[in-house]
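S.,

Sequence below, as promised.
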Amino acid sequence: MGNHIVLGIVTQYDINTVENSQVYYEVILFDPSQNRALLAAIVEYAEIAEKDDRAFLVLSLTTNLGLVILIYDSPVKRLNVFSMFYGIPSTHNLLNSTIASWSDAYAAVGSFTSLAPAREMIGAVSYEFDNTTLQESYSSFKNLSTQVQTEFNGSMSFVIQTITRSAVQKSALKGGNHLGLKEVTQAWIASVIQYNSSAADNLARQTSQIFEDQIDAIAQKRGKNLFYRFMNDAGYNQNVLGSYGAENVARLKDVSHVYDSHQVFQELQNSGFLLSKA
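The prediction came back faster than expected:
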């Protein structure tokens, strides 16, 4: 740290790790005409995945393409849990069906998901899995995506991750449900707006907020809305910690005082999702 004052020295970390075992992965590209079929497929997958905790996927849609990332925590190719996607006509594979290590899979997927545009605006919403809610959300996304392209020459993506009820239950057994997740199968939705000019920042921010409001309204209408906001996908203006629930936030604050009694990491950081601001 040079001549700076040393505030503390960490002498030990205790962490749980995941074995760098052999897995199956594949990345498939689809024509956008298949996007609604892909939405129906992920609803079907979510139900089957409740009974298979080795399966994982991410579905990303734009008005130009559909893309699905399939990963299975075992060296077995083309499993039934993903069969609903194999049955949809695809254009080609970005990554062929492969057996390799977890680290190889992350590196391979990361090789084509790097973000070229200079600027990005993201936002997160979540709701219980429901095909009608997904389909209506996609309609809202398509309209906003067209505006993004027309108004400031940007692009917009609609990204879905599946979180199963069984995953919530198992995580709670390993230390509690500090995120306040409801024990239901849920879709974590991310909107990703990419563009090149800082002059479009306000428009991108407004569009992201409109998307969040519209999706919340769609889910609320069907009784599927969840207030949780996934921190990795959330915009800086979203109330992520507040979405955990007051009881969980209070507990996290108590824990922070145990390990950071002077609240250095809460008060001296410039920004971020800080407990001191929750």
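Confidence is low (pLDDT under 50) at residues 1-6.

Coffee later?
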